[in-house]
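<tokenise_the_fold>
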Amino acid sequence: MSPELKKMIPRWTVFGIIALAVTIPLVVGGSTRFPATPIVRGVYEEIEKLPEGSPILISSDFDPGSEAELEPMMNAILAHCWRRKLRVVVMSLCSANSMPLAEELVKKAAAEHKAEYGRDYALMKFLPGGTAPILTLGQSWSAILPKDYYETPVADLPAMKGITKLTDFPYMVCVASVATPDYWILAGNAKYGLKMGMGCTAVMATDYYPYISTKQVSGLIGGLAGAAQYEALVERPGLASSKMPTQSVVHVTLVLLILAGNILHFLTKKKGSAA
């Protein structure tokens, strides 16, 4: 066996182990019951408190690059809202790509829950500018969003009944893969007292824990694990619950491989020193 091939064996062994760690849970399955933490439950309980027919604002601030992690979260929140018979209004501060993706996800979920556009939900346009559009919405909704995503006057949409400014929403949720929750916290909550929760990628979650302790954010759904917990709360196992066994096994496998690599390194170093 050539020296080059010998060097490749450990690498391909690691690749093979990871492939098995991904494949086996997908085939065998695993638990779909994930007890919710108080932080995740904070979003659920606020939505659960809203009276039937109340409006709720969702800022869909992610693009296709983070869809795999945040789509399950978005689906679970929408399912909860429509189960409670709430009027859902979706907008975005993220990018020009965020609203076409939100439209696709929301329409798919709406078809599943028999939610009707204009009556049960409405889609707004993407608003660039960070905190500036939020500050304007706090004064007058129609000043910056007189028409919806499809150019229909918002006054003609039953889903928008009674909405003249941002604080007419008793609650909002920002689902984000970028820093737009900062805008909502600074301009929406700090300026106007807008009650809000949020969902974000797992890598972002720890940055926003301080806002929970200050009660500026009622709760936080973090990553795929948070989405799986929310699915458990709404008793609707979905994409997150099905993916969690694979993610858990892969994480454990990576930790074991790192430990094994370090042990082999020190054993080889010790053997070399003894020689």
In short: The beta strands are 55-61, 87-92, 121-126, 172-176, 196-200, 220-222.
